[in-house]
Amino acid sequence: MADEITISIDGQEIQTEPGKMVIQAAMDAGMYIPYLCYYPGMKPYGACRMCVVKAESPGPDGSYRSLPGNPASCTTPVSDGMRVTTNSSELVELRRGIMELLISEHPHGCLTCHRIELCGPADLCLRHVAVNDRCITCPKNERCELKDTVRFLEMDMDSPLSYNNRHLPLAVSDPFWEMDMNLCIVCARCVRVCDEVRGDSALTLLERSDRVLIGTSQGTSLLESGCEFCGACIDVCPTGALVERNHKWDKAVETINTICPHCPVGCEMKLEIDKRNRVIRTTTDINSPANRGQFCFKGKFGLEFLNENKSRLKKPLIRQGQELVESSWPEALDLVAAKLTNYKNNDYAIIASARGTNEDNYIAQKFARIVLNTNNIDVSSNIRPELTAPLFELLGNAAGTNGIWELEQSSNFLVISSNMTEEQNVTAVPIKKALNSGSSLIVIDQRKTELARVATIWMRPNPGTESTLLGGIIRVIMDESLDDHEFLSSSCDGVDQFKGNLWNLDLVKVETITGVPIEEIQKAARLIANANSSSTLYALETIPAEYREACVRALVNLSLVTGNINKPSSGIYPLFTGANEQGAKDVGCSPTFLPGYNLLQDHAKDFSKSWNHDLSDGNGIPLTKLVDSINEGGIKALHLIGNSPNYTNGELGNFIQALNKLEFLLVQDCFPSEITEIADVVLPSSTFAEVDGTYTNLERRIQLLRPALGAKGDSDGDWRILCQIAKRMGANGFEFATSEMIFEELQSLCASYKGLSYSQLNSVGIQWELQPVKPMLTAMDVVLPYQHKNEQYPLLLAHGRVLNQPEREMTISQVEARNRIQRQDIIELHPNDAASLKIEEGDWVEMETERSAIQGTAQLSGVNPGIISITTLFGQMVVHLEADTSPDPMMRVPTLPLEPAKLTKITATVAAD
After folding, report:
1. Which domain holds residue 341?
2. Each residue's pLDDT tens digit, 763-798
3. Beta partners for 145?
4. Are 396 and 367 in the same domain?
């Protein structure tokens, strides 16, 4: 960090950093300078002139000279010894004059009224101000920055300029939000945050009839402008011009900070609660360490399930014949305890919730191992265990190596098989900012994702050959002596064996196997090796299970060869999907006591001693093998905590069908589902917003959840339910009264959490530290392509999704006053496949998978043989999500795996029908 300097603001000396703007230095010191167009984290703009100051800087001789005029503090950088005046009578009058100009085009009948605090919505206005000129009609009444600034300036009741209503129509047809340009002060915050922070440019400044307004950058709808519906524009808007559609008029009586449950980024959020115990909106804090004030569509608009009351499970349910009937907690718990007694050892398995807290999941694995004497324990999002398991062997820690916002300073990115702009959205924000600053991006993926669309190099290898492609990149780096010699020789094990094995990766052979030209492989290798820092992010979403571990090992090798481990703004990031999947593994919620899950050495011994119980030897059955075990009669009783999209999206095979073969199915959940309908006992759980505890995000940051809502019905926390069952089954060690007591126990057994407490986590959370281990290179083999064999669906579908495709024709129509996208789908296929199917360019075809069917025109392109490709728009999905009436629509966001598919040419007659 640069040396601090001293400046004076209104006679008070403060310490700050060189290069900061005066207004930010004042904010950091807890001092207020009025502003409207400025917003932390965005570039200085200087449009509203509300933050004007007087400033003096010392010259070489020690005398002070005044800066010309009245500079805006948001565009004036600090200098050592600077003296700033913010509140002189001259400056106050200047700001009042500026504000009079601003409010002449904004309703301000209430803004300048001294009785506003005493006035209610139903009161008759004693000033006879028109209704559309009053704050009570504004959705941001009582939380408007413009009102706060007017109050600070102590404006007179009578303004010399009359209000000029624009009478502009409201934009209310797009999903989730509404726009009223009659309330806009053209501060351009929304346009700038969309461009500078989010990298989307969905909004822009327009000029209509000599007025500057905010509008969509393309067309008339956000659906065609590339909007990702993150809500950043709403959060920075200082007036009621941009608002959320749901609960837009509702007022909060309380605000609670907690953590988003939708993905592993761990975004801190503020839940605004109204007097009816409802979450009416979510907002963020620019100082939140994991997300820095950013959200995604799930966190901003996907928490309405917290207000679902009618569909909520409120009482325990017990199956009697063909029906589930309500029961009391004692009756249900007694029945569960009696039933589970018959399934001790390996007849029983428990799957914890990816939304469960660390405390929930610690108790779940303790319950499995002590009470049922089994290691059959996993977490519902762990469908790709290879993401983290090899990292312990090679790097000493089964977790990502670097922080999320270090990505902003990376000079190169390698993203493999990841749709991260949807699945881990905020992690992509610093990447897009870095790209706008000149960093390079290499994407390896068969699908056209949003990052693939803007990549420097986009490589589409034959499925399953990703590790061979990475081996080819490493071979180029070694051949051209671009590796980090010093790091390899001094910091890594297995170097000689690795180098000897590498010569098997002949580039001609790599090109033949992967389908990626040698020139692209060489270009990618040079970009990675010549970058000052390179970050690798991978999700393995399209890679068959048997190829994943080899791919992760190759990624580690590449990071080590280029020296991008153990240094800032580099490293390796496994991108899983569960909100607390990292934490679940950290606390032992896995089918084996792996050191990679950050438990102390001699784990079984330590746990046995702490719990006073001999633990079952051997590995349990992981989630990915669960369906096979049930079908083979191995697992007879299953305990599911929480719902998961993986139960119905095909990732685990025919999961629901397998559940019907169980002897006993116990479910703890918040809402009815396909699974609760076939359960033998259903126990009502609390949501994340009704409990306290901790989450651990993908950058290893442990953060506190805080209860924001009261319990619904007789629902209870998952760990409490498990403890009650354990006690009824005669087990000791489950006498916990609070989640904090559980944390005290788990931190004594989990190495990475050792010594931590709730009081330490109370502010911004703590990243657990990586164990210092000498990293290891491993031998690499040539891996042949995946052989897809399916007579019914002989091809593989690579379904991509992007924010916009301006090169493709589309129209916006309205259905029931809501915007909808209309465009013709294009289905790409290789010329060889087209010839065998007798399909020509432009033919009308139908693509079909087990999950869906799409009709469109055929386009012969450079996709791999055996692959068909479609690219749909994110806006189409958002429209369906808004219309979805299920309790938790964000759990139904369609994933994009490689799917078996078939393609059929449609004759003119059929197409006409």
Report:
1. 329-384+579-690+711-756
2. 779 999 998 889 999 988 888 999 999 999 999 999
3. none
4. no
